[in-house]
């Protein structure tokens, strides 16, 4: 079978969760099938919409250059004819039996239609909420969870993209029209997806609540390459807590720091590991992180790391803190913690309680509540045997080989 994986970014350009998963899945599928990847890159030194053909980890990669230089209206952000034409050339060249979409942000939402015009099967893994929310995470401008798409709510968040700084009645009416237009378009192109894959029940139910067909959504958890992980820990005289992931406001990094500073103890350490991302242009968050640490010598901000070092990082922490404040889907980092025998303190929000059940390798704390998180840190400090107990109760994690086999059955069913 010839398979094309489509995603908004791909290693080595970016090593975030969905990109890492798409890479591991593609490698697993490539053991028995022909697999290529189509993705976006942003290189201002290259021609706009140029498609580079290269090989990465023995996978053929098509990288479309998109710097949004030709955006003249809101619609150009999520669908673009020049991008469609470039994708059609790749479809004609690779001629896949099935196209597996992981994300269409920074690409074009017309892609599923173009595949169906050629008689190709389609499936779409819902890694977040982007089909429903242009910002992707249903987190509003006040960093509060949104209850779902609504014209007025969406325009509040997207005003700069849709109508700019104008606030007249006419501009708002035009903005409402543009929001409705995107929603109608997404509803239309969704009919060209044979199967949606949701890595959590929470994510599936959220999409069904917002109008998606529940008969075409299958809940299927992520798989991992177990050979990359080990439960061994490097010896240390300290009790080591860690944050691993993107340093951005939706991930709640500052909450981990605030909570840790509420707990006394010279024998405690906290490391912050990850790449800084300015969330939707929100500037100054990294300065906020540094200010939050308040010069506490127990806190070390390590910054960006190569993903091939993630096992080394886990080997140097005893407890992972995962303080995200948005409707997380099925965070890869939590499952990597399970694979490395690292207990997790995790927000009780979104799909996280579905993945991280209390007493099974983790403890939950109230989303955004640094005091509650500090209480959980103290609990582990006062009774360190709990850490070993949590290590012994880690839930199992699906292998990427098993996940690839599950998806191959879905591909076969779609193309049969």
TrEMBL record:
Signal peptide segment: none
Glycosyltransferase subfamily 4-like N-terminal domain span: 16-227
UniProt-listed InterPro entries: Glyco_trans_4-like_N, Glycosyltransferase_grp1
Protein name as it appears in the record: Glycosyltransferase family 4 protein
Organism of provenance: candidate division CSSED10-310 bacterium
